[in-house]
Specification:
Mannitol-specific EII, Chain A, 42% helix
């Protein structure tokens, strides 16, 4: 599964301000809302925060993948946000998070989002790629970096 099949420039923010877990989740849900991907931001915010209470989605190396299933969508949604200054997101390695990918899957979809989570984890395991993404100057550039990385993996 390709990240770029679900990500558009409108779903990428390159200047996310640091904040609490709740504030970051709120900003990610609002990014999905402003793009028109969802209509009820509170439902998505609640689902993401509920998942964070189970365990942190900060996977380490400066990356977090908040994710949840929701009745708010009938298709897989993803957004990306870069926090150049880094922020505490209770990551497993206790390091600040700089790159966020939020994934929202339909509530009735079993396992669909797991393939996307695996694709994001795989691509974000590359130090050089993370560095390129963090230094991107536009949403378009972030998307192109991801597309190139996906093409190289095939």
């Amino acid at each position: 599964m390709k990240i770029s099949e679900h990500l558009t420039e409108e779903l990428i923010c390159i200047d996310l301000a640091p904040g609490s877990v709740e504030e970051i989740v709120d900003r990610l849900a609002n990014l999905l809302f402003r793009s028109g991907a969802i209509h009820r931001v509170d439902e998505v915010r609640h689902a993401l925060l509920e998942r964070e209470q189970v365990s942190s989605t900060g996977i380490g190396s400066g990356v977090a993948i908040p994710h949840a299933r929701s009745t708010e969508t009938d298709k897989l949604l993803v957004c990306c946000a870069l926090c150049p200054k880094g922020t505490d997101f209770n990551a497993l390695d206790t390091q600040p998070v700089h790159i966020f990918f939020a994934v929202i899957a339909p509530r009735e979809a079993s396992g669909l989002h797991l393939k996307l989570l695996a694709a994001i984890s795989r691509i974000m395991s590359d130090d050089g790629l993370r560095h390129q993404i963090l230094n991107a100057l536009s949403s378009r550039e972030v998307l192109e970096i991801i597309r190139r990385a996906e093409a190289a993996q095939q």
